[in-house]
Amino acid sequence: MKIEYLQSFVTLSNTLNYTKAAERLYITQPTLSRHIQLLETELNCPLVARNTRKVQLTEEGRIFLNYATNMIFDYNHATQKLKEIRHQPEHQLRLGFLRGGTDNYLLPLLQAFIQDYPEFDLQLQDGTHDELVTELRADKLDLCMTMSTTLIGIEKIKLHVAGNLALVLVVSDDHPLAQHHTVTFEDFAEEPYLCVEKQQTKAWYDYIISLFLSQGYYPLVNDNCSSVKTLLMQIALGKGISVLTEGCRSSAPANVQLIPIENVPTIQMVFGYREDNENPSLDLFINWVKDYLR
């Protein structure tokens, strides 16, 4: 049973007109008639009732129509899947990274990697700390780049150090501290502090609070910002200050300043991945990163 015969039968069933069906199939009417006859011979029953005025399906034809339609669907679906397999890249990797905080640091690394492996299918996904951990543990990401404190202690997650990001104070251009080359916590401890809503990025929120406390201060927190982007816009409008990493520099508006903070630890960034991940592309990428950062 050829797929062409099934396509001819289904098209004729939809049009109930040999001329229209032949035109849709880009074949001649005699060819269409021959396809129907060969199909009827193979099934040993009439599918189409012919007379001089109209075309109708027989009872057998109406029953067979549903099966023929499903067979064509399954055939098309199977050929598409096989085509995808033939054209599937040899290497694929699902990489998550921290939204609004690591772009400036991660992009040069990825550009260098793609230059060495141009055929590599690198699928990128941004997210908050908590979102990245959830996706990684659910095996929806092969690895993610985030703060080491987010992943340390999680069972069956291996870490590879990616580097360190310095903490910076973010202020508007017209803020009194905007012209400073560096600042200390004492310089801004009493300023209105803006941050992303706690439920959006709990790990970072908790880290910053603990950092303030370690310096002997408690921030005057306003956590009404829904994202890093809106946070930076609020700072540009003079609504307050914030502490971020230098990795957000590329996302910052032109009218804000990022000032290094003295006497605070840098943020260790890591690539985290499941120890049971069997994707060979993961080993290739991690080994390349080790050489790149050496």
Automatic annotation (TrEMBL):
Q: Which Gene3D superfamilies does this entry report, sorted A to Z?
A: Periplasmic binding protein-like II (3.40.190.10), Winged helix-like DNA-binding domain superfamily/Winged helix DNA-binding domain (1.10.10.10)
Sorted alphabetically, the Gene Ontology cellular component annotations on this record are: protein-DNA complex
UniProt GO molecular function = DNA binding; DNA-binding transcription factor activity
Which residue range or ranges hold the HTH lysR-type domain?
1-58
On the tree of life, the source organism's domain of life is Bacteria
Q: Please give one Pfam family short name.
A: LysR_substrate
- Keyword annotations of the record: DNA-binding, Transcription, Transcription regulation
The family assignment reads: Belongs to the LysR transcriptional regulatory family.
Q: What is this protein called?
A: HTH lysR-type domain-containing protein
Protein species of origin: Enterococcus pallens ATCC BAA-351
